[in-house]
Write a structure and sequence with these properties.
By secondary structure, the chain is mostly helical. It is 59% helix and 0% strand.
């Protein structure tokens, strides 16, 4: 999960609109929208801290995806799972090529792979 996705998830869990979060941390709504956009700008560390405080999530989870989402949770989310690693050279090359594509095209390629994979046990 990318930081943009974690930020959106944190905001929605806190039941805040982009405008409400922006008001709480002292930025324009467009800044929050840009931060939540895949491939958009990243917030400064100062703003990241403010977002974590405003939404009630841990700074570590918000910034890295590791650790508990909420300070009082004991469930940890690993930053990298074993399935994130390519299992052979072909998978590795496909992953490298996929990462070079724009986000929208990546989604299309993933859809094609899903269709093809349905035909195999």
């Amino acid at each position: 999960m990318h930081m943009a996705d974690r930020m959106r998830r944190a905001r929605l869990k806190a039941k805040l609109s982009q405008q409400e979060l922006a008001g709480k941390i002292g930025v324009q709504r467009s800044a929050v929208a840009q931060w939540e956009k895949t491939g958009g700008n990243l917030p400064s560390m100062h703003h990241l801290i403010d977002i974590a405080l405003a939404t009630g999530v841990t700074l570590e989870w918000l910034g890295t995806g590791r650790g508990p989402i909420k300070p009082d949770e004991e469930t940890w989310t690993p930053a990298v799972q074993s399935l994130d690693y390519a299992q052979d050279e072909t998978e590795y090359q496909c992953l490298q090529d996929l990462r070079r594509l724009p986000h929208r095209l990546r989604e299309n390629v993933a859809g094609i792979i899903a269709i093809l994979a349905k035909n195999y046990p």
